[in-house]
Amino acid sequence: MLSSIVKDHQNKQAIRKEKQEQKRKEAIQSANNLTQALVDHLNVGVAQAYLNQKKLDAEAKQLQTSATNFAKQTQSWLHLVESFSGALKEIGDVENWARSIEGDMRTIATALEYSYKATQETASSSTA
Q: Which intervals of the chain are annotated as region Disordered (predicted)?
């Protein structure tokens, strides 16, 4: 009788230990699943941040290239405007020079006319 109670007790203990071991394994598995779910959730955020960073880097590089091209184009435009301005100044200088020459030619023409008239009057007075 005592030995059957002891055996019964040992069987119950073995069954409890087995249940306890099974629950421990389930708890470990649940903890692992939870940890994996948390890591996956965090990895999604990290992966998204990484992709966003890659996009930002690509866009920054493209912006840098566009800014450089724009600066070159602006320099080209400035050079073109300066050349145009210089050409306009030269045209203005040529126009001024032409006016100056025209004024000198009028003065010379007037002096020649005056001289011719004076010569004609002298010649008319001498023959008369």
A: 1-28
CA distance 128 to 121: 11
CA distance 123 to 128: 9
User: What average pLDDT does the chain have?
Assistant: 90
Q: Where are the beta strands (DSSP E) in the chain?
A: none
- Determine the pLDDT at residue 32: 94
Angle at 92 between CA 91 and CA 94, to 5 degrees: 65
